[in-house]
Write a structure and sequence with these properties.
By secondary structure, the protein is α+β, with helices and mostly antiparallel strands. The protein is built from nine helices and eleven strands. It has helices at about 5, 25-35, 45-50, 55-65, 80-85, 95-115, 155-175, 180-185, 185-195; strands at about 15-20, 20, 40, 70-75, 75-80, 95, 120-130, 140, 145-150, 205, 220. A four-stranded mixed beta sheet has the order 10-9-7-11. A three-stranded antiparallel beta sheet has the order 3-5-4. A two-stranded antiparallel ribbon has the order 1-2. α2 (about 25-35) crosses α5 (about 80-85).
Length: about 230
């Protein structure tokens, strides 16, 4: 079994700590780094994000180095493959294959509804699975990792914008408030993501540009890939 498969099995509990820092806070920081600044970070950024003093920062980074969650790169640090696994580790009660299969079937039904319903201005154009769900030797699952790609159903930008703002107006009429114009512009896309997620904590959605996809095995389930013999 490869080191990659081992790290991607990582599970955590709320009581776990690294240098007396809750592991959930470390996980959230790794996620913040990889979403905003590749996999590199500085000790100063680490200290400020977690509100640590200098001694706590030094002890935490030393333990992260010792446990191979990070490695030193010149004067900075880089999140390793094991650290990437920690970044997506879930803290939930595992589910069995039967329940996981049902969750995936329900998810497929939802994205098919999105694609067939003109109310939604985006269609799901690609779906990849990765993580524990596609491992043949797995017996339980912390979640179902799903990478998705969306595309606009309407290519005319002016028409798309007009329909997007109509959705915003409908939401405002129902009492929803928006914090910014940017949030309004993104609302049509947010509706699709909310439908896909369905408030289910076992569904873990990832954009196609998520770096984790570069270092792990994936399985495309939509559109189906033709196998040429």
């Amino acid at each position: 079994m490869t080191w990659l498969k081992l790290t991607l099995r990582m599970r955590i509990t709320r009581k776990q700590t690294i240098a007396n820092i809750p592991v959930l806070e470390i996980r959230d920081y790794f996620d913040f780094v990889m979403r905003h600044n590749s996999a590199n970070f500085t000790a100063e950024s680490f200290r400020e994000y977690l509100n640590l003093n200098d001694l706590e920062t030094d002890e935490a980074i030393k333990e992260l180095l010792d446990k191979d969650f990070v490695e030193r790169v010149e004067n900075n640090y880089e999140i390793t493959l094991k650290g990437s696994a920690l970044r997506i580790a879930r803290c939930v009660t595992p589910i069995n294959k039967l329940k996981a299969d049902k969750l995936l079937r329900d998810f497929i039904q939802r994205f098919q509804e999105i694609n067939n319903d003109d109310y939604y201005l985006y269609r799901v154009s690609k779906i990849l699975l990765f993580g524990s769900y596609i491992r043949e030797d797995a017996t339980d699952y912390a979640d179902i990792d799903i990478a998705f790609e969306l595309e606009k159903k309407i290519t005319d930008q002016n028409k798309f914008l007009k329909l997007s703002l109509m959705l915003v107006d409908e939401a405002k009429d129902k009492g929803k408030s928006f914090s910014s114009f940017f949030e309004e512009i993104c609302y049509a896309r947010s509706l699709v993501l909310l439908k896909l997620k369905n408030r289910n904590r076992y569904i873990s959605l990832h954009e196609m540009d998520d770096e984790i996809l570069e270092i792990t095995e994936t399985k495309q389930i939509y559109p189906l890939v033709d196998i040429i013999v």
